[in-house]
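Tutorial sheet, problem 5. The two components below are modelled jointly, 926 residues in total.
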Amino acid sequence: MRYAMTVDTKKCVGCSDCVVACQTENKVPIGYCRDWIVEVTDGTYPQLEIEIRSERCNHCDNSPCVRCCPTGASHYADGGVVLVTPNKCIGCGACIASCPYDARYPHPDGYVDKCTFCLENRVKKGLDPACVSVCPTKCMYFGDLDDPNSPVSLVLKKRKWKTLIPEAGTMPHLYFLI
Amino acid sequence: MTSTRRQFIKISALGAGSIALSGSALKWTSASSILEKLNTGSVKPLRTPTYCEVCFWQCAGWVYKDEKGEIQKIIGNDDDPHCNGRFCPRGTGGVGQYTDTDRLKTPLIRTKIDGIETFREASWDEALDLIASRMKEIKSKYGSECVALFTHGSGGSHFGQMLKAFGSQSITAPSFAQCRGPREVAFLTTFGDIIYSPERTDIRDTRCLVLIGSHIGENMHNGQIQEMSDAIDKGATIITVDPRFSTAASKSKYWLPIKPSTDMALLLAWINVIIENNWYDKDYVERYTFGFDQLKEHVKPFTPEWSYGITTIDPNVIRRTAKEMHDASPAVIIHPGRHVTWYGDDTQRLRAVAILNALLGSWGRRGGFYNPAKAQVPDYPVPDFPVPEHLPMEAYKGKYKLANEVVSNGICDATIPTPDQNCNFKIWIVNGTNLMAALPDQQNTIKAIESLELLVVVDTMPVEITGYADVVLPECTYLERYDMIRKSPHREPNIAVRVPATEPKYNSKPASWIAKQLAEKLDLGAWFPWTNIEELLDWQLKEIGSSLEEMKRIGVKKFPRAYDDLYFTPGEDVSFNTNTGKIELYSTDMEAEGFNPLPVYTPHEEPPEGFYRLIYGRAPMHTFSRTANNPNLTDLMDENTLWVNPKVAKLWGLSSGQYVKLRNQDDKLSTFSIKVRVTERIRWDSVYMVHGFGHNNKNLSRAFGRGINDTELITRVKIDPVMGGTGMRGNFVTFVFENETIGKESES
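Model answer (structure tokens):
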């Protein structure tokens, strides 16, 4: 089993619903976020293009954050999801510095926090992560890459895609349809 | 209550007021801890049905509480056709309306302490007694219709019932003359029916969607966004006309970066091309329309080459996009938009939009415009409402003759005394609309308010209009109350209920309770015969085979359509609700009222040297000015920015992140400053900002001084003579530099 997420940049409007849905689902304190919107504009008026992406932890196969964690708080959980165990975390911030995607933040309660793919609170109950299930454009897909019929597998077969900073060698599992 | 100059009171800014307020906050704390105790027993997360009030789309959803009994999240109801289980960011962040500690907390009455006007706290009884006695007094002196209600949202039906029982039909909402009015009148005169809300656009199945200044994706009209996304998936062609590279433009096959204010010249050229090339639906036009020959003759001179000189859009692109529409027809939508009060000839522009749709045969066809149906819910039996001596339209007699709703600015203007008016408005009740941000020309609004004998504001937040009030009534949020059954038209008739997820915070009350109490004090209890709103809702629901108990469990209920008439059947004989019974390409209504029966292009003013057209729009995480203080939503966007083209930025030495003030053509200087965003996404002759920021009430702790309020710069208003719409896009601004700005201070 290998969980992954894809974001269709052709449909995402950058509304930030994924951000606020994650905050309310996971009780992320106001002022912090586990996912965020990136908007890139290219060209000059009127020859323009915009790519809009909903970004978060890439749940990498080769995660620098897990490797550098001195206490084992950062770890691989079911389906390759990268998690942090709050009471093992000493808040040293090594993982924050190591992440090429800047996906982690120091939680005010003294540990490092990030996207969990809603593994325990939703995915294991058969639900999609909060961001995926709220998105009004339905631009996000979640599922098991090992299952050829999962929504992620199907859409990755059909469409052109990319990952972010593949040259970092982290083997990310957040895919962007382009 | 003074008829002399009314001072704007920043609620709780003055000593007495603020002391009194903190007292009431303490009282609330104890009430809430009782509530907590009550809820700790329940282990299971509770879910309560609601429909959202953060915008007018009214998506139905579920409010979930956590183990402590606190509202945690709001999730869309899967059965709701407005949202299909997916709330937008505002609805998801709606919990912030409830948790916002800046909320209005207790009734306030204007008073004078040491010569300074301020508010004092009052009990509900005292506040409502005062309002009732003033209403009775005004009724006996001037007539009941001199009390007007401005409303936007669910409170409207409760206060409306009270006001109609009182004998006034002066009930108005800025959603008509400041927003979608021109499109409704244009489609009514053309097709004999309006667009409704949610819009009857069949975007889900369209093959070509044409957006003219409508920035779906930034305006977060949930169902429209969802269906646009479906249409993208199905490979529909999107054509976006906008001087700004909007999000929708970035999703489009064609973006037409039109010169602002020239849309009519593009529409006429499209009509010309479609007729000249025989790209219209001949059978449909022959069968259903009236005035094709006149239209054909009328648009002959409006060639793409003629249009090019006005719109700056390449004639080949005009032809190519017209062909795309033809190829997709009848599954094509020239979208009527929503906020369309731009230049004062808006009804005519929307008539051109309606005509294009008619030529392509999209009205009544799959992928075009469907025929919406509404659930029939009977009203609770009450006595007939008294017939007022004067109807609200008499306030603007001889004007706006095709307006099919009450014109808010007409009521506002008629509040300012004139010798020829036999009954100026003396009392305004304002509910759920911040008129200082909703109505353009603020000085005119203030002048009207100064002429009033009583201004009552019912709101959840201390928005600017509350500062002008004599009595402020704190309404609780939608998460704390029942409201009337939602029964908006859609593909499938449906209803949704709103049930309180929790008790009202502070000393706030539901609109249904406030209106009933006030009615009883006015001896109008006969129009509110139910014990409480639950009894009323249960009665209504049982009449249609449901119950409040059932609706609490399911939230949304769908009903079968009475007729299989979502679309016209091929060759169907259809009679339209117009004078000719046909779709009127040539409008006999317009002609009869002395307006052009066929739309014409009128040039609009252009920015003077050194000035730029002020264009405003929406952000997906905010609604009007009502969410600017919501803690969850300000976390996503806490100020508006000024979009400036790099060429303009270079000329003025502007860079991104810098704060500037703006001055308009009438020398009006913005109160606050705004952060510059240098971007290629806006034309060099315009600047752009999101509406709803720049609040000047200090008690809105997150919103105060953040950005610029576009409304204060909209001092020049172009009134649409057809229906009274306030055209707001004819204002021009220039940059004013300052060393220190409030924006910068609050940033640090």
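Marking note: Chain A has a mean pLDDT of 97. Full credit if you identified this.
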